[in-house]
From TrEMBL:
It comes from Glycine max. The keyword NADP does not apply. Gene3D superfamilies: paz domain. This is PAZ domain-containing protein. Residues 170-256 form the PAZ domain. It comes from the Eukaryota. InterPro entries: PAZ_dom, PAZ_dom_sf.
Length: 273
């Protein structure tokens, strides 16, 4: 700026400053989304950590705290709590974005062919105002003092069978595509079964250790058969490891916009008045 000399510092808008420099840590403002379910179900909700590069206004935090959603099975309360900021390396941010993108694609598309794309770029962007991360929080009563983010599932994408098994009692090995893995590593994993093109969540391996391909399967009015025969007749496949323990899987949850539904109900009530 001619005429002013060094009286004023140079200024560059934040939108024009690239944050993708390697080795530079980035500050994220964290908020804990505490979820409280008012209904009974086999699967419990888990808290979520919202990490953003621009701090939320205190009024927004206060407004969102105590929000109630009318979900399919009852009510879900959300409380937003401000946490201490964290510093993340570009590599850690890439892992977070890879986890988040993969999870969203699984829930929204339910199509294994859409999980990856050649155009995927998980590096730091240049728009801090819209940069956010949704990450799983650690279990409420088992949270370590150094971190509230559950990094284990975040860093598990992509899945690797080569990592060491950390279970106390080594469970049975499960044959997967071109490899075998300890069944404990498959708990809470998302798996794809090519024989029916479906995606499942393996939420436990304890309850099915006594079941294998030769175990009996009660089909009600259709009679009793074995899992091996069921897969052969139903899907036309031969179980290559019939003595291997079966895993307990669950279908993916259907993603619904309960915020929009709540607004529509409120508008209908206002019109009736």
């Amino acid at each position: 700026m001619e005429g002013f000399g060094n009286a004023y510092p140079s200024y560059v808008p934040s939108e024009r400053v690239s944050c993708s420099s390697k080795g530079r840590n980035v500050t994220y403002h964290c908020y804990l989304m505490e979820l409280e379910q008012h209904y009974e179900y086999q699967v419990s909700v888990n808290d979520i950590v919202l990490a953003i590069r621009s701090e939320l206004d205190s009024e927004i935090v206060d407004t969102l705290s105590g929000t109630s959603f009318d979900v399919k099975r009852g009510k879900l309360l959300v409380n937003l709590r401000h946490l201490e900021p964290i510093q993340l390396s570009p590599e850690k941010v890439q892992s977070c974005r890879r986890f988040q993108t993969t999870l969203f694609r699984i829930l929204l598309n339910r199509d294994v062919t859409k999980l990856t794309s050649v155009s995927d770029d998980f590096s730091l962007g240049d728009n801090p105002e819209i940069d956010f991360l949704l990450l799983p929080a650690t279990v409420k009563h088992q949270r370590p003092s150094n971190s509230i983010i559950d990094w284990k599932p975040v860093l598990s994408v992509p899945f690797s069978s080569e990592s060491t098994c950390d279970c106390k009692d080594h469970a049975c090995n499960v044959r997967i595509r071109n490899d075998s893995v300890c069944s404990c590593k498959l708990e809470n994993c998302v798996v794809y079964t090519p024989h029916n093109g479906s995606i499942y969540i393996i939420y436990t391996t304890d309850g099915t250790k006594k079941l294998n391909g030769n175990s009996t399967l009660n089909q009600g009015l259709k009679g009793i058969t074995t899992y091996k025969e069921h897969f052969k007749k139903r899907h036309g496949i031969e179980l290559g490891f019939e003595h291997q323990s079966l895993l307990h899987g669950r279908n993916l949850f259907k993603v619904e916009n309960y915020l929009l539904k709540t607004r529509q109900k409120t508008e209908k009530k206002k019109k009736k008045k």
